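Re: the request from the purification team.
They wanted to know what the chain is likely to look like in 3D before they choose a buffer screen. I agreed to run a prediction and write the result into the notebook, where they can find it.
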Amino acid sequence: MQVRRVFILGSTGSIGTSALDVVRDFARRSDPRGTRFEIAGLAAAKSGDVLATQAREFAVPAVALVDDGAMLDVPAGTRIFRGPDAACELLASCARRGDLVLASMVGAAGIRPTLVAIERGCDVALANKEALVAAGAVVMPAAAKANVRIIPVDSEHNALFQCLKASTSMDEVRRVVLTASGGPFRTKTREEMALATVDDALAHPTWRMGPKVTIDSASLMNKALELIEAHWLFGLGSDRIDAIIHPQSIVHGFVEYLDGSVLAQLSPPDMRTPIQQAMCDPRRFDGPSRKLDFAALRSLDFEPVDHARFPAIGLAHRVIAAGGSSGATFNAANEIAVAAFLERQIGFLDIAELVRDTLDATPVSAVRSLDDVLEADKAARARARAMVRA
């Protein structure tokens, strides 16, 4: 039996808890031909009580918690890292070459821990879009230099990752297409979207996610971020990456090859499927995720993105073409815009407008290091906050 040491960054969120469900299922199966996962460390921003419960269940030797003031009732002997750099300190002290780091911390806070994981020689199962959207020019070269793998966990990128195994070179690929459910406003008019409340935007018809990701899905900013992420993951230009609306969320991605063949990956909307694939790649095992019921599969619907109602997709293509610091600016402005919407300071349609206005007002600079990314991120946040207050 192969034993794989795993660190989960963002263990109390939806991705982290789904990953632990996969680990729990593998432990129950005890297949001597298979894989067993040993949880070597867990990290969370808050929810110290949940983190402590996880640490006790999985006998985790080390945990990290960003929230300094939260109670953390872990077993005696458990190493504890606290504060804003807790996840980085956990990895720097405990991770070793060959470990797997599931990077699912939300937002720009996940960039530095991802780089630390790479520096330690760990493969990264990446669920943090921002690490590539804002810092792809730093992360991907670092992974290549360290000879570690970046395996996408997002259902769409993981679908492309699986379909691309049929190619010997990216030169054989005409384009890749990511699917989007369309969220709660797929059939709404722009006028109706302008009046949308926070509760309306949080009512996603397919997926159950945290508030930030759910709002991103409603505005299709989530898909815009994924287009930029796909650019970095697969080395494709803007003209070879697209998105399409697919409300059933059964098909997660298409790869069109030069000969006209199109490969697609299908599975029910259950994040445990791509998480398990990323954790086990290149092998496959039975697992806890839902399986596709072909008898109940009546139709699969697709429709083009309405760019007038969902301008985020066009902004993503703009960012890919501009390169440099534009990804960091895009991501930072979106984080500020979503937070402002959740706090009812701006309207729903103002999210994309604020991101566009921030891009318009921010010069694109070269990105050669993490410091360049963080500087661009800081400047964009300040500019976006000023626009919210204006």
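For the purification team: The CA atoms of residues 23 and 274 lie 14 Å apart.
Please add any questions underneath this entry.
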